[in-house]
Amino acid sequence: MIKIASGINPLDDTPIQEDSFLHNTQIIHPLFFLTDYISYEIEKSKKPRRKPTQFIITDEQLEQVSLPAGSIGINEFAKAINEVIDRTISKNITGTLINKKLKELGILSEEVDEQGHRSTVTNDKSEGYGIECVTRTFNGREYQKVVFNQVGKEFLLKNFCEMMR
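The structure assignment produced for this chain is given below.
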């Protein structure tokens, strides 16, 4: 296709006659575009595109985490962590996974309502770790949100790597 687009007969490498339709720009431009596209797809397919399967953060990356001021929810914490990790070697962390680890440690608990919906809640240990429950409103409905005050944020940052093992 490159030869044809360049005005060369691919069978015998002779120039294509000047009056041939193959000299028409409406034919030549799409041929060049198509050859570029095929080359791009071939190169792209050579590179492995596997997504990382583990969460990995270095001590240096953890030191770069910048948390918002005031009390924050676990998803805000996870977002700040995800901003500093290398996504070529690490998958993102989620607030759900962090909460799961905190539940395993007994720092948070889970309750189930009448409809069977599960929600993360604080318990007797939570306050000592800087974790509080505040009332928020969404779409006219009040709910309890678990937030981390300054003590809670410092606890998460200090113990994050150990917690995520």
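Interim note for the steering committee: The first strand starts at residue 108 and ends at 112. The beta strands are 108-112, 118-122, 131-138, 141-148.
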